[in-house]
Design goal:
The protein has 182 residues and is mainly alpha-helical. The chain has one domain. The protein is 66% helix and 9% strand. It has a 3-stranded antiparallel β-sheet with strand order 1-2-3.
């Protein structure tokens, strides 16, 4: 977890550093490629939540990031090793939360710079959180499907066991009648 979260934090902070030092606030970088119509870099400050909503609640989002990070650190060791998708999602969530928390603590706002299509401008921490949430939902869904399958198999096994027990009882009754008639 710490390796993945650390990689996300490093990528996030390094990319934000490069943007802050190479693009003026509000400046847009459009590479002269066909890609520029779909993706560009723009240096923005975001004091709110993801994609700039609730701009006056920056301190609340800082507190939420601290609580979420603490919860992840607490629950992660309790997730079974075979739940790889859930463990990966938690690592991505931790890296994203801490990446943006560092910005809020040092600057009072988050540096956003990735502009894709018509989606609001984000950063690598936001992207990590988004992917982490999707993977977490998928991981819980897969866990639920496995549990349903295991329950169904157990129910079928119980039914087969009951049939076998009924068969044993019937055989025992026949045997008792046969021995009683002799």
């Amino acid at each position: 977890m710490l390796l993945i979260a650390g990689a996300v934090i490093l990528l996030d902070q390094a990319s934000k550093y490069l943007v802050r030092h190479n693009l003026a606030l509000g400046e847009v970088y459009r590479p002269e490629l066909w890609l520029s119509q779909y993706a560009r870099l723009i240096h923005l400050h975001n004091s709110g939540a993801a994609v700039g909503i609730f701009p006056r609640l920056g301190n609340l989002f800082m507190l939420l990031a601290i609580i979420a990070s603490a919860a992840i650190l607490y629950y992660y060791p309790r997730i079974p090793g075979e739940e790889r998708l859930i463990r990966l999602s938690m690592a991505l969530l931790l890296g994203g939360a801490v990446g943006n928390l560092i910005d809020r603590l040092h600057q009072g706002y988050v540096t956003d710079f990735i502009s894709l299509l018509n989606i609001p401008v984000i950063n690598f921490a936001d992207l990590s959180v988004s992917v982490g949430v999707i993977l977490l939902c998928l991981g819980f869904w897969r866990r639920e499907q496995r549990q349903k399958h295991q329950q169904s198999s157990a129910d079928q096994g119980d039914e087969a066991g009951k049939e076998q027990t009924r068969g044993h009882h019937l055989a025992l009754q026949v045997l008792l009648k046969a021995t009683h008639n002799e």
